[in-house]
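Title: Request for sanity check on 3-methylcatechol 2,3-dioxygenase prediction

Description:
We are preparing a figure and want to confirm that the structure record we downloaded matches what your pipeline produces today. Could someone re-run it with the sequence below and paste the raw structure tokens into this thread? We only need the token string, no images.
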Amino acid sequence: MTVDRLGYLGFDASDVDAWSRYANNTLGMMTAAKGKDSDRYRLDSRAWRLAVHRGEADDISYAGFEAADAAAFNSTAERLRQMGYQVTNEPDDLKADRGVIDLVSVIDPSGVRIEVYYGATELFEVPFVSPVGVSSFVTGEQGFGHIVLATPDLEKSMEFYVAGLGMELSDIIDWDLGPGGKHKLHFFNCNRRHHSLALLPAPAPKHIHHFMIESASLDDVGRAIDRMERDSRILLTFGRHTNDHMYSFYGITPSGFAVEFGCGPRDVDRSWSVVRYDSISMWGHKFISPE
Ligand SMILES: [Fe+2]
């Protein structure tokens, strides 16, 4: 009885208006709601997937992991408590804010607020329409996409996400950053998506390194590259990852961390074995330094 997917993300952003333009016009997300201090965006039939809150951190504020039902939700919360984590039963007003039936929160070993919930709000009566014509985002059973978080204590973070939330290790990449040293990137799955979470065991300026959204077609990715070049800045060129086989590129968000926009990855299945790699990419994903 574990979490089944990454469901939603919240960011703290110093420029929510820039995020609004970026989410709609560059990434192709649909606005779900505009508030005084936060805006919400949709990727699919869910009422919302991304919340951008006015704040100074320009970092991840919370990540919501979804359990299938009350039994999985309760057993995950109980397991975290037995491991010694302080798990907070959130009040009705926050459950209503998130649009979920039940909700707990806990701080992970790297200091990121993790919310575990079940019973999110579906909004089939208001169809998802991308304002820039992204055909669709791949979510559903595989959830939002993925996040990569920096952690100062890989062992503790792994214990939290594997023994606590019930995720499984997919693989490890020895990522050679040249003068930045080598880092053992660890990737974790909780459904067919190769990873919903990756951990970067290195000191980093922000908790989040990047988040990933997956579109249905290569044309969606190509058009996103065009929009990113027009509106913003590309961080890593189009390429294909060694482990999930995703075709993707990376852009810089208005908060300074990155976003990966991709398509066409392979799934993990029951025949999957944990392996390791010496490179993050088969080809491409070349760093573009700012002018
Ligand atoms: Fe990624």
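Thanks, this matches our download. Residues 218-231 form the longest helix (14 residues).
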